[in-house]
Amino acid sequence: LVDAIGNLKADEDGSVETLRPLLLQSDPADIQRHLLQLTQFASSAPTENIRHLILAGLTVAEGNMVAALLTGQPDRDVYLSLLLIDHEETLKACYDPIRKDMLRYQDDATRRAAFLAIAHIPFNRASTLKLLSKNILDASHRNERRFAAIEALNLIPQQEWTDALKPFVLNSITIKAIPSSLLYDQKEITVRAGQPLKITFENNDDLDHNLVIGTPGSLQEIGMAAMQMVALPAEEGVRKNYIPELPSVLAGTPIIGKGKSEVLTLFAPSTPGDYLYVCTYPGHFGTMNGVMKVIE
Q1: How far is CA 40 from the centre of its chain?
Q2: Can you tell me the distance from the alpha carbon of 18 to that of 84, in angstroms, rounded to the nearest whole number?
Q3: Distance between CA 220 and CA 207 in Å, rounded?
Q4: C-beta of residue 52 within 8 angstroms of C-beta of residue 23
Q5: At how many degrees (to 10) do helices 48-62 and 16-24 cross?
Q6: What is the pLDDT along the chain (296 residues), one digit of tens a residue?
C-alpha cells in the first residue's frame, strides 16, 4: 500500500480517495514501520492531494503532527492533511499546537489552513467559534482573512453557531467554461444580498478565459474596455488579465488556461439586482456572460 501511494503519478490524483481509507484506517503500528518511506514520499509527491494523504498517514501513525512537520513540508500542507483524518484522539492532539502557532502566521494560505484544521477538529468548539467569530465579524480585517474564517466556520454544524454568525452561510458555486463554445455552463446564478460567496471557475476549454463580476447593465462597458486593453504597451493588458479598472468591475479571476481553476471570494452586493459575470478575454464578452441575480 505504501509503495502504491509513493508511486502515484500526477494524473492518478483521483486515486487518493480510494487509498485514503486503506491507509488512514490501518493500524498505526503498521504505518509506523514505513515512516522513513512516507517521509521520503512526502518530498517527492507530484500533487498536493497525494502529499496531503502521505502527511495524514504520518500523523495517524504517530498520533500527532510531529513526524509530518519534520518532513520539511509547509505547515499549511500539514494542517490541510488533517482534513483527511477522522480519528478524534489524533485530531485532539493537534489542536493546541495549531492554536499556539497561530500568532506567528503572516501569510493568508497558512492562516486559512490553520482555520480549516481547527474547525475540522471536534474539540474545544467554543474556543474555535470564538476565534472564527473574531476574524469574521471584525470588518477591519482583510477579506482574505475573513473568508478563510468563514470557510472554516462552514465546516462546523450550523446548530453550534452563535446568532451573530448565522448570516455567514457560505454559498459555494462552480461555473465552468464549456469547450469550443465561448459559453459558461450556467447562464444564471442566484445569491442573497450580502451573502459570502465562493465562486470556483473551471476552464475546460482550449482557449484562455476568466470570470469577472460586474454591476447591472455594465456588460458593454466592461467588454469594450477589455477589448481596448489589447492596445496597451508591453503586454500590460495580459498582466492585468484584461480586467478594466472601472467602478463597474466588482471582482474577477486571473486569465487561466485549459484544465486550470481559480476561486473567487466576495460578499454579494448589498443592493438586489441583476449583476453580471463575464469573460473579459478580448472578444469573448459577447457570448461568454451570465446573470448573477442578487435577491433580498
Answers
A1: 27
A2: 12
A3: 21
A4: no
A5: 10
A6: 999 999 999 989 889 999 999 999 999 999 999 999 999 999 999 999 999 999 999 999 999 999 999 999 999 999 999 999 999 999 999 999 999 988 777 789 999 999 999 999 999 999 999 999 999 999 888 889 999 999 999 999 999 999 999 999 999 999 999 999 999 999 999 999 999 999 999 999 999 999 999 999 999 999 999 999 999 998 899 999 999 999 999 999 999 999 999 999 999 999 999 999 999 999 999 999 999 999 99
Task: Count Cβ atoms below 10 Å from residue 278 Cβ, excluding itself.
Answer: 25
Using the CB atoms, write b or e for 200-227: b if 16+ within 10 Å: bbbbebebbbbbbbbbbebbebbbebbb
What's the predicted TM-score (pTM) here? 0.87
**CB of 93 within 8 A of CB of 63?**
yes
